[in-house]
Amino acid sequence: MADLFDRYRVIDVDTHLTEPPGVWTDRVSSKWGDLVPHIERRDDEDAWVVGDKVIFKPGAVSMAGFDGTVPDHPATYADIPNACFEADARLKHMDENGIYAQVLYPNVGGFGSQTFLRLEEPELMLECVSAYNDFLTDWTSPAPERFVAVTALPFWDIEAAVRELERAAAKGHRAVLFPSQPHDFGQPALGERHWDRLWAAAQDAGLPISFHIGGQDLSGLSKDRAKIGPKANFARISSLSFMENAKGIAELLFSGICHRFPNLDFVSVESGAGWIPSLLEAFDWQWRNGGVSKEHPEWDLLPSEYFRRQVYACFWFEREALGTAIDQYPDNIL
């Protein structure tokens, strides 16, 4: 395997870490009691519980090696492969499959860290975010060169978010998770100057910003209004969630962020890439024909050019449309 890694370093740019049961109970003050996220057995399944509310089920996102189709999932940690939540087992799995490194995204805290808002107590929310980041530092320590830690942020508090970013960067984290539509959670829109302090801190630290699908409020999208059934509805939601990231990319490219922070990279994660050329063609056409350059003469590049310089997209299962994306943006498709 070492010879293979010397020749080709395959990097899994979007993998997830199933959080072990003690992530928060081992690190968060006991004064919060059962408000700290913890595991309970509910209806024969392991569940993450806050107070008396189930907020997540670890098996729901631990499908590797499971003989079933989503939304069916393993019921307990005993049914989940150890490689989902143990670092040594993960490294063994990576070696067996020729994967040199993995970029690690969370589950329980949400794909944009939005689930922490459900804790409601600001002090507890911040403590739980920091605890997750500390856990991630510990978990990746056996092979920090092969595990890319992605920092969770308390994005609802800009000052705390900047501090946490800087703290995590000092611990070796290499990317930052952020919701592509923070206004879904009562925060300023992505393109507002409110976030410039955060972008500046990330740029100074050399950390890219990751927009993962599902980091938005999908409550409206997820409703099965037509009563088509759980599997068909899940397939519909999963497909349309790609376009939620497209909205974030539009906000990014039409708001001057890339112009103001030319050395800051952004990654659209798990959102596919086949649609990228069509979207960017539309952006450029609207830009040229909509008078954007007159309204903002300081923006000296087209949206597609800002994208080419600073934005990346992760393909997944695509085959047919992916070739065009790679042909047009060979350095931006991960």
Note down, in words, how this protein is organized.
There is one protein chain. With about 325 residues, the protein is α/β, with parallel strands linked by helices. It has a single domain, classed as Metal-dependent hydrolases (TIM Barrel), CATH 3.20.20. The chain is about 35% helix and about 15% strand. The protein has 11 helices and 10 strands. It has a 7-stranded parallel β-sheet. Helix 4 (about 160-170) links the parallel strand 6 and strand 7 (about 175). The radius of gyration is 20 Å and the shape is globular. The relative contact order is 0.09.
SSE blueprint and pairings:
Layout: H1 2-7, E1 11-16, E2 38-42, E3 45-50, E4 53-56, H2 87-96, E5 101-105, H3 122-140, E6 147-151, H4 158-170, E7 175-177, H5 196-205, E8 209-212, H6 230-253, H7 257-260, E9 266-269, H8 276-289, H9 292-295, H10 303-310, E10 311-313, H11 322-328
Parallel strand pairs: 1-5, 5-6, 6-7, 7-8, 8-9, 9-10
Antiparallel strand pairs: 2-3, 3-4
Strand content: 5-15%
Largest sheet: 7 strands, parallel
Spatial sequence of strands, sheet with the most strands: 1-5-6-7-8-9-10
The overall strand count is 10
C-alpha geometry: globular
Distance between the termini: 22 Å
What would CATH call the architecture? Answer: Alpha-Beta Barrel
Helices and strands, in order, run as HEEEEHEHEHEHEHHEHHHEH
Q: Rg to the nearest angstrom?
A: 20 Å
User: What's the CATH C level?
Assistant: Alpha Beta
The third-level CATH topology is: TIM Barrel
